[in-house]
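Proteins fold reproducibly. Look at a sample protein:
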Amino acid sequence: MSNILFPQDFQWGGAIAANQVEGAYRLYGKGLSTSDVQPQGVFGDIVSREPGDHNIKDLAIDFYHHYPEDIALFAEMGFKCLRTSIAWTRIFPNGDETEANEAGLAFYDRLFDEMLKYGIKPLVTLSHYEMPLYLVEHYGGWGARRVIGFFEHYARIVFERFGSKVKQWLTFNEINMSLHAPFTGVGLAQNSSKAAIYQAIHHQLVASALAVKACHELVPGGHIGNMLLGGLQYPLTSKPEDVLEAMQMNRGWMFFADVQARGAYPNYMHRYFRDHQIELDIEPGDLEALQNTVDFISFSYYFTGCASATAQEKKRGNILSMVPNPHLKASEWGWQIDAVGLRILLNELWDRYQKPLFIVENGLGAKDVVEADGSIRDDYRISYLNAHLVQVAEAIKDGVEVLGYTSWGPIDLISASTAQMSKRYGYIHVDRDDEGNGTLERRRKRSFYWYQEVIRTNGDSLKME
């Protein structure tokens, strides 16, 4: 036994997203989303959808119809929490309607009821890498101030409908990634100017704050957080110029949490806007709205990188491009593996905000092999997750308040960045390949039983490394 002690109410679980698992494309009144026109993933071409065409995300793993089976498997592992998202276009197909689509609301009623049947707390993201395509085509995405009102209306409708069942909410998934993938984040073209992107981000930050206000008004006992892509960067060397560059790069993504957790734009961003001739259109009431701050900070963590004041070759991991760290190994997809970085990031965020933290994504994408006997021996995944969870325990010993850990993709799903099935994260294998072939059969991997034991022992079964 390791003598690692997590809090007794620690929320062990997993995380999924509607557009990567649900399928049921255009069924039951669902409208087109930005994700639906990105069949190759976040950085792929944006396509027009024609009647009768299809892509791998249209069915995904058909969670829409398989969710009772999948929730039962999560319960078998002992999940205390499941992070998922609501597809905005299931509730408002175009995004600007007054009346909600009842079929969409009813689906999430059934889903949340199924989770609660097993004592699994929902943690629900309002917008996870998708928004109604109609709002992009007819209004200009988040570049249009009117979208703030459409989002607030959507948020209020779901809070009113599900507030008795869902007490934990997040506003925008990896909100800082809009700087790197603006179509996915704010519905703007990839080549949009920095000024246009930051204006859209301003609208999104105001909308996030208004959703926080609405949650506090409409969800008894509710808590709502933000969600960051944790892109921690180290100086490549001890040169002061590299240290300064790392500080600036980290501020570039922590700025989002500074606004959401502190309720105002930080001074360093005012300088950034001046230096880049960016003048935000801030209307009366915007700054007051931003004072509705989040209750906790949530984030994804997959890798770290380095920052250098001199030109260096960069490699992409997840959405970000960073200078590789010469001291770290990388995954099959080139994402550098840094378990200690998770402890560092937890301490950095705790010291900066003094708000509870929730690790809502972390995991290893890898190519799994189904053996002749049907088993999947993913010891590499177990090793990765064990190392990261040991560092979470160390951060808790450091005094960091950590609410929970929902590993990414507890069941195999469509990857966001590349739209592949072969990039697998799950404890549960789904029989489907990158071409869309397969039976969709669910199969427990070796990591399923490992995570089951971690949860059963509240982390005591973890191996110190």
Remarks:
- Residues 147 and 408 are 29 Å apart (CA to CA).
- The chain has a mean pLDDT of 96.
- The longest strand covers residues 121-127.
- The chain has one domain: 11-456.
